[in-house]
Design brief:
The protein is α/β, with parallel strands linked by helices and 209 residues long. The chain is built from eight helices and seven strands; from the N terminus they run αααβαβαββααβαββ.
Length: 209
Amino acid sequence: MTAPQENVWLAAVRNDPDHAENYARRWRSLVAQGRDIHGEARLIDAMADRGSSILDAGCGTGRIGGWLAERGHEVVGVDLDAHLVSVAREDYPSVEWIVGDLAALDLADGAGERRRFDLIVSAGNVMTFLAESERLPALQRLRQHLAPAGRLVVGFGAGRGYDVAAFGADADRAGLRLEQRYSTWQLHPPADDFLVAVLISATPGDEAV
């Protein structure tokens, strides 16, 4: 599968205006069925000190960031889709949810300085929704929002137009270094069908550039 030339999510919404609503409804249905939808969030929670600052990059309906906020973390969630963000705001009103583009991400604090996070998580195949031209800028922006010693955790499945080698090359160009690689959010050894990557800034102290 070749890399997408346009944002896959935006294309899906254009082709089906109910796409975002159906997506949100699916997750709520899984919760109603008693299904476990928080595997990614449990890993991030285990990696974080209590009260850590966490960015949920591509937060969707807030299932990861909302769960983490309920465990005492300071969470900000960003997603391109306004409907999904509205669902996150409804389900987790105490969390800061922002409609935004990861490829142009520029979050500022009250003093106008770039916000930086102890952990950034991008799960749910978010990276594979990006157009090819958006991938490197998104990774660069995420690196710039890392706190000193901060970590970026990315997970996505194979066969979605973004293979592990291409992702690794983009991460390297973005100034990120791969620290660990797994095949599941339960930290099974690397495999070809799914990537969970833990990355840090390749140049400590350079995150705010």
